[in-house]
Design brief:
- This protein is mainly α and about 200 residues long.
- Helix content is about 45%, strand content about 5%.
- The chain has a three-stranded antiparallel β-sheet.
- The chain is globular.
- The termini are far apart.
Length: about 200
């Protein structure tokens, strides 16, 4: 029989690798300014600022209820995490007034509901983020890139980042999330005198 043996060979699976990045300070400022201007019954600025300042995951923010945000104890309690370990996040002073306003304005029990008071769809978060990036005239970023930006923030000790961000280990955080901004890498690199 004349069966071609190649027909039995399975083709290689093509894996699409998504580029992860962290936003520079300039990009972040432009993005947050544009997010403040968004309308439509959803406080996009509060959502994206919370993602960035806390390093929380998208679904942690989407499903967060008002009861999880305690202004008396000054903490956010996240029960359903990727690592199945609850985490307590102190409310940063720069985030507090934004969260207070969001909590007052939100309909229903969710902290960041859609305009009808229902669970915000993850694709809506992505699509709005792209729209805001376009309006801010910066390269498109993903919601998850805000987590990378948090992890790469200079001046915050790695152990504090790990606890607040909820990473299982310092190694996971360093290997996957920390990407110093290009300008920081360049500045530090140029400080070194290689030729004696």
């Amino acid at each position: 029989s004349s069966i071609n043996p190649v027909t039995r060979v399975k083709p290689f699976k093509v894996i699409k690798v998504q580029k992860r990045r962290c936003l520079s300070d300039e990009e972040l400022a432009k993005f947050l300014t544009a997010a403040k201007e968004e309308r439509g019954g959803i406080n996009w600025y509060a959502i994206y600022l919370t993602l960035y300042i806390t390093g929380m995951r998208r679904d942690e923010v989407r499903t967060m209820e008002k009861a999880q945000v305690d202004f008396i104890k000054n903490m956010i309690t996240i029960l359903n995490t990727k690592t199945d370990k609850p985490k307590i996040i102190p409310i940063h002073p720069q985030l507090r007034p934004v969260l207070q306003q969001a909590k007052e304005e939100a309909k229903g029990k969710l902290m960041f509901p859609d305009a009808k008071g229902k669970l915000l769809h993850r694709n809506k978060m992505r699509d709005r983020m792209h729209r805001i990036c376009d309006r801010a005239h910066i390269e498109r970023a993903t919601v998850h890139d805000l987590r990378h930006t948090f992890a790469s923030r200079q001046g915050l000790p790695d152990r504090v980042k790990q606890i607040i961000g909820g990473w299982s280990s310092k190694q996971v955080m360093e290997k996957t999330y920390i990407h110093p901004p290009e300008d920081y890498v360049r500045e530090e690199y140029f400080k070194v005198n290689f030729i004696p």
